Amino acid sequence: MRILLVTDAWEPQINGVVRTLKTTARELTAMGHEVRFLTPLEFRTLPCPTYPEIRLSLFPQSGVNARIRDFDPDALHIATEGPLGIAARRFALRHDFPFTTAYHTRFPEYVHARLRLPLSWSYAWLRHFHGKSKSVMAPTQVVVDDLRANGFQNVKLWSRGVDADIFHPQPSQRLDSPRPIYLYVGRVAVEKNVEAFLELDLPGSKWVVGTGPALGRIKARFPSVNYLGVLERADLAKVYAAADVFVFPSKTDTFGLVLLEAMACGLPVAAYPVTGPRDVLGDSKAGVMHDDLKVACLEALKLRRDDALARASLFTWRAATEQFFGHLHPRKRIVQGKQLLAPTH
Predict the structure, then answer these.
(1) Strand partners, 100
(2) What is d(CA 62, CA 249) in angstroms, rounded to the nearest whole number?
(3) Is-cis flag, bond preceding 180, omega within 30?
(4) Hey, is 20 helix, strand or coil?
(5) Within 13 Å, how many C-alpha atoms sit on residue 338's CB side?
(6) Are residues 140 and 117 in the same domain?
(7) Considering only CA atoms, which of 159, 162, 133 is closest in space to residue 328?
(8) Which of 32, 171, 188, 252 is the most core-located residue (most Cβ within 10 A)?
(9) Angle at 220 between CA 223 and CA 180, to 5 degrees
(10) Distance CA 272, CA 257 (A)
(11) From the CA atom positions of the chain, what is the Rg in Å?
């Protein structure tokens, strides 16, 4: 099957959406399918206000139309709600082409945190965007239930996985600082609530891996914290293995791939009892969820690393990709072996 994945989130961004799409494409290819991406790298772009590493495609409609016609996919998946996603959706509706979509991030909550835009406005627009989707794929059951409660239709579960070839327990002295060592990995942005972690009075030391628009301000406010920037995945695995507790302060993430990566390296988790941690940790002994993040951090020190590893082993990319593939809606071709879409000239 020929599968086209349309995404506004792409390199040089390093985040869960990009990693999920790349890994899903790898698994689909291994399953015998032909996969192509439609990304901002193919268009003129400008930086997103307040988030310059995100590139927004300029006037992409004609280019999107041409690329879809050229590839002539059997299945169309629109991963994001940005300019490329909007253009692909418009093409699909005009040509009666079935498509699926994904809800990767809590967009209304992010916009509210940055711009104070009412949540109801963002959810209304998202209901419109996803309304014609054959399957709206969400990463956890909690998010599935939340979307249904907000009036979304055809919502399906599409879980995530972890690459155990890279993220696994190993001896590591990568972090040379007083123990216990508390670690945060992810974007350094207001919606990630990193300061809630860094403000805690905890014994030992704290490390932050990642970059983002709030990094300069946070470095100035918390100069005693250790900062590593963006790391290659193999080096990141060594960092996870060297820490004592992985701290996940976000209250808006839909999943949190870093949770799986940390646990796969045997690192227990401390988090708030919110969407993402609730689904990933479940009722396991892989982490501690508490409304007081300091309590969660201190209690997580008592957990066994083997329990974190055991929980992570339940999440595989092959199983997640089979879920994704099962939710796709291939189009019916009018003439067997011929294009349904007329080529551009």
Answers:
(1) 77
(2) 41
(3) yes
(4) helix
(5) 4
(6) yes
(7) 133
(8) 188
(9) 30
(10) 16
(11) 21
What is the torsion angle, in degrees rounded to the nearest 10, for the CA atoms of residue 191, residue 194, residue 196 and residue 201?
180
Q: Are residues 8 and 143 in the same domain?
A: yes
**Residue 158 is encoded by which pair of tokens?**
């599409």
- HEC assignment per residue over 243-279: CCEEEECCCCCCCCHHHHHHHHCCCCEEECCCCCHHH
Residues 6+ apart with CB under 8 A from 166: 233, 234, 237
- Residue 262, classified by CB atoms within 10 Å of its CB into exposed (0-12), middle (13-18) or buried (19+), is buried
Indicate the SS3 state at residue 313.
coil
Residue 328 burial (C-beta neighbours within 10 Å; 0-12, 13-18, 19+): buried
Buried b (16+ CB within 10 A) or exposed e, 268-304: bbbbbebbbbbbbbeebebbbbbeebeebbbbbbebe
Return the residue matching tokens 């992010």.
Answer: 110
Contacts of 115 (CB under 8 A, 6+ apart): none
User: What is the domain range of residue 115?
Assistant: 2-161+319-327
Cα 208–Cα 10–Cα 214 angle in degrees, nearest 5: 35
pLDDT at 303: 98
Q: What is the pTM of this model?
A: 0.80
Decide: 279 and 315 in contact? Cβ < 8 Å.
no
Residue range 84-143, pLDDT digits in tens: 999 999 999 999 999 999 997 765 565 545 556 676 777 888 999 999 999 999 998 888
- DSSP for 201-239 reads --SSEEEEE---TTHHHHHHH-TTSEEEE---HHHHHHH
Does 55 map to a domain? yes
Q: How many Cα atoms sit within 13 Å of 61 on the Cβ side? A: 7
The answer to whether residue 344 sits within a structural domain is no
- Of all helices (H) and strands (E), which one includes residue 50? none
Beta-sheet pairing, 226-229 with 155-157: unpaired
Write down the pLDDT at residue 344. Answer: 40
CATH number at residue 136: 3.40.50.2000
Q: What residue ranges of the chain have pLDDT lower than 70? A: 50-51, 106-117, 119, 334-345
Amino acid at 260: L
- Say yes or no: 29 and 105 in one domain: yes
